[in-house]
Every structure is written in structure tokens, then in C-alpha cells.
Design goal:
alpha+beta; 5 strands
């Protein structure tokens, strides 16, 4: 009986351990976007290092939450538009920016032709978006930045690194 209990407990723990986050990582099989790398610390002038205006704004906004490395993924049905820097994406999920260090993923979804931004906790799949105005994890912060860089943000996907 002890062996059965031990192996059952081991199997449950193994399945639980290997499944943590995986069901919530809906982007895992999507093509990678071009945006990836470490988030520089507060105060770094990335423009002097070859970065662009939107990367500088991103550093200035998110350095306070110290998000660590990031990687982007683009939904397969939106990838062709993304590759040609298109402006009109299909309805549904567009892409994500994953920050594993802080257990967060920034999402952009298109509904009725407009972007819907959110911040999800990777481990639970639930929204952890902040409600405080100006907070780095408030979707309005995403919206404001994306709207401010029209030349760089094409159809709600941003960056000169396409």
C-alpha cells in the first residue's frame, strides 16, 4: 500500500511540476517576433547604444518593475502582416511580450479593429494588469505608448526591429 501511495503521490507531483505554466503559455508554438533581449536598467540611454526612441521609452517605463529578459511571439494568423510591417491585423490575438523573471506576459489582442492590451501572470493565466494610472502594468500605459509612436508602431505592433 505504501508503494502505491508513494508512486501515486510521485506521479501527481511530476505531472503538476511539468505542467506548471505550460497550459497558460498559449504562445509557446507561435513564431518568435524580432523583439527580444535584456531590459536595460533605469537610467541607461539606449539611443546612444544604437537603440530607438520606442526602446528608450520602454526602458524608462518598465525599468521600475525590473522585468529582466523578454521575448516576443506573434500569432501565426498575424505573422504575415507582422513580417511586412502591415497596419491591419486580423481579429484575435496579435502577439505577446514575455517576461519570465516577473512571471508576466504583455498581450495585444485585436477586437473590432482596435487593440486590447493586458498583462497576464504566466503561472496562472490571469490578468495582473494594474489599475493605477501611469503604472507600467496598466494597459492604458501600453495604449498611450503604442499610440505615441505612429512611425514605429504599425497596426499596434511596435519596434524598428521587425
Amino acid at each position: 500500500m505504501r508503494k502505491v501511495l508513494f508512486y501515486t503521490l510521485f506521479a501527481v507531483m511530476f505531472i503538476g511540476f511539468t505542467g506548471v505554466g505550460s497550459a497558460n503559455e498559449f504562445w509557446a508554438k507561435w513564431p518568435a517576433g524580432k523583439a527580444k533581449g535584456p531590459m536595460p536598467p533605469c537610467g541607461v540611454n539606449v539611443i546612444a547604444l544604437g537603440g530607438d526612441d520606442i526602446l528608450q521609452a520602454t526602458v524608462d517605463i518598465y525599468c521600475g518593475v525590473n522585468p529582466g529578459n523578454y521575448k516576443s511571439y506573434i500569432h501565426p494568423k498575424a505573422y504575415a502582416t507582422y513580417k511586412v510591417k502591415g497596419g491591419k491585423y486580423p481579429e484575435g490575438m496579435l502577439g505577446v511580450l514575455v517576461f519570465k523573471k516577473i512571471d508576466a506576459v504583455f498581450t495585444t489582442e485585436i477586437k473590432n479593429g482596435k487593440p486590447i492590451y493586458d498583462v497576464l501572470q504566466i503561472s496562472t493565466g490571469k490578468s495582473i494588469a494594474a489599475s493605477d494610472a501611469g503604472h507600467p502594468l496598466n494597459p492604458k500605459t501600453c495604449e498611450k505608448c503604442h499610440a505615441s509612436f505612429e512611425g514605429v508602431c504599425k497596426g499596434y505592433a511596435c519596434g524598428n526591429r521587425f
